[in-house]
From TrEMBL:
Pfam families: M20_dimer (PF07687), Peptidase_M20 (PF01546). InterPro entries: Amidohydrolase (IPR017439), Bact_exopeptidase_dim_dom (IPR036264), Peptidase_M20 (IPR002933), Peptidase_M20/M20A_hydrolases (IPR052030), Peptidase_M20_dimer (IPR011650), Xaa-Arg_dipeptidase (IPR017144). Gene3D superfamilies: 3.30.70.360, Zn peptidases (3.40.630.10). Belongs to the peptidase M20A family. The lineage of its organism: Bacteria, Bacillati, Bacillota, Bacilli, Bacillales. One of its GO terms (molecular function) is dipeptidase activity. This is Peptidase M20 domain-containing protein 2. It comes from Staphylococcus delphini. It comes from the Bacteria. Residues 175-266 form the Peptidase M20 dimerisation domain. One of its GO terms (biological process) is folic acid catabolic process. GO terms for cellular component: cytoplasm.
């Protein structure tokens, strides 16, 4: 029996357990770094199937690494495969980004691999990464060296189509904090220096940058503090912006200009500004052969709406992983085409037959890909070559 048929049989035997996990996580949405119920359920299943669990990785209370060491040859180090999942929800919305699909799919792929490929030598690591939507758990996990010893990293994500992203945008999320001089806005406005004026000047300056940036750049921000009362000249005001671009070099040039805009806004309003980067992610390192294999395997697994890579994309902390190891993320269709994420439509689709189908497809496709990697020296060589070439082009 082929590995593919063995994998299919394993997934068939455990699929109801995977669907139940999806539905539980969907019905118990938890914000980043608070995903205790999800992690308890996920790790309980992995322990049942023989995985050793390491918790509190990188001092993150809802992170984990579940390891299955199937080391058959004492003279040869086995390949280590990282299967990565997220499980955080969105504030006020719930699972509007489909993260409840990820752990069931990754667990399915992991269990299918250890059972169907038992004649091969390997180490499987299921890596639970919290808070993708907010603080990006992969950042401290990367700094702790979690991903550096992997030979391959795979993920899945829900989508309106089935595809594999070839790119993501580098991003810097930045806080701008302006400090002025308070005064009564009616009695003595001339004595005040409005921190809010500084914020408004910042917004205006960034707007004037838009004519002079490349088309891949995205700049979007909100006022996080605009003052406390209308009759007080605001002593403190703040804004948060995300700046994105396809290339880190372009983004760094933009950030230099943004810094001057912020300093100019403070100078013009006689306020002071503090600029603080709260998150920085890189663009994805693309390995096209790995993408092609993963998407072909999705087709073999019965995926619907197989599509070319998206022209427009956002940012992901999975990009950090791809700077250490060849990696790919399968996006699996479970909502109607052109349905945007971070919406109620995604929440409402979270426990549907289509959602369960996406889990089954992703579990199979990811496990097929692991089997391909473990059994094909030519594939491993090509992936390694393209990974090195992509790194040199950064």
């Amino acid at each position: 029996m082929t590995y593919q048929l063995k994998i299919d049989q394993v997934i068939h035997n455990i699929e109801n357990e995977l669907y139940h996990l999806n539905d539980f996580i969907h019905d118990h949405p938890e914000l980043g770094n608070e995903e205790f119920k999800a992690v308890e359920q996920i790790t309980a299943i992995l322990e049942k199937y023989g995985f050793d669990i390491e918790r509190n990785v990188a001092n993150l209370p809802t992170s984990f690494i579940a390891t299955f060491d199937h080391h058959m040859d004492s003279l040869k180090e086995p390949y280590t495969i990282g299967l990565i999942c997220e499980y955080d929800a969105l504030a006020q919305l719930g699972h509007g980004c489909g993260h409840q699909l990820q752990a069931p799919s990754i667990i399915g792929a992991a269990i299918a691999t250890i059972k169907a490929c038992s004649d091969l030598s390997f180490i499987i690591k299921v890596i639970g990464t919290p808070a993708e939507e907010t603080t990006s758990g992969k950042l401290p996990m990367q700094k702790a060296g979690v991903f550096k010893d992997l030979d391959l990293a795979l993920m899945m994500h829900g989508s309106d189509r089935t595809t594999v992203d070839t790119k993501s945008l580098a991003i810097n999320k930045i806080d701008f904090e302006f400090t002025g001089v308070p005064s009564h806005a009616a009695v003595s406005p001339e004595l005040g220096r409005s921190a809010l004026d500084g914020v408004m000047m910042l917004f205006n300056g960034i707007e004037y940058l838009r004519e002079h940036i490349t088309s891949d750049v995205r700049m979007h921000g909100i006022i996080t503090n605009g003052g406390q009362a209308v009759n007080i000249v605001p002593e403190f005001a703040s804004a948060q912006f995300s700046f994105r671009a396809e290339k880190r070099s372009n983004l760094n040039q933009l950030l230099k200009r943004v810094k001057r805009v912020a300093e100019g806004a403070a100078l013009a309003t006689e306020t002071e500004v503090r600029i603080k980067t709260v998150k920085q992610l890189e663009s994805k390192v693309n390995v096209q052969t790995l993408n092609d294999v993963l998407l072909k395997n999705a087709e073999l697994a019965g995926a619907v709406r197989i599509s070319p890579p998206r022209e427009k994309t956002g940012s992901t902390d999975f990009s950090l992983v791809t700077h250490h190891v060849p990696g790919a993320c399968l996006r699996t269709a479970f909502v109607p085409l052109h349905t945007p994420n971070h919406t109620k439509a995604w929440v409402e689709a979270g426990k549907t037959t289509e959602a369960h189908d996406a889990i089954r497809v992703a579990s199979k496709a990811l496990s097929y890909t692991v089997a391909n990697f473990l059994t094909s020296p030519d594939l491993r060589h090509q992936i390694s070559y393209e990974f090195k070439q992509a790194h040199q082009a950064l």
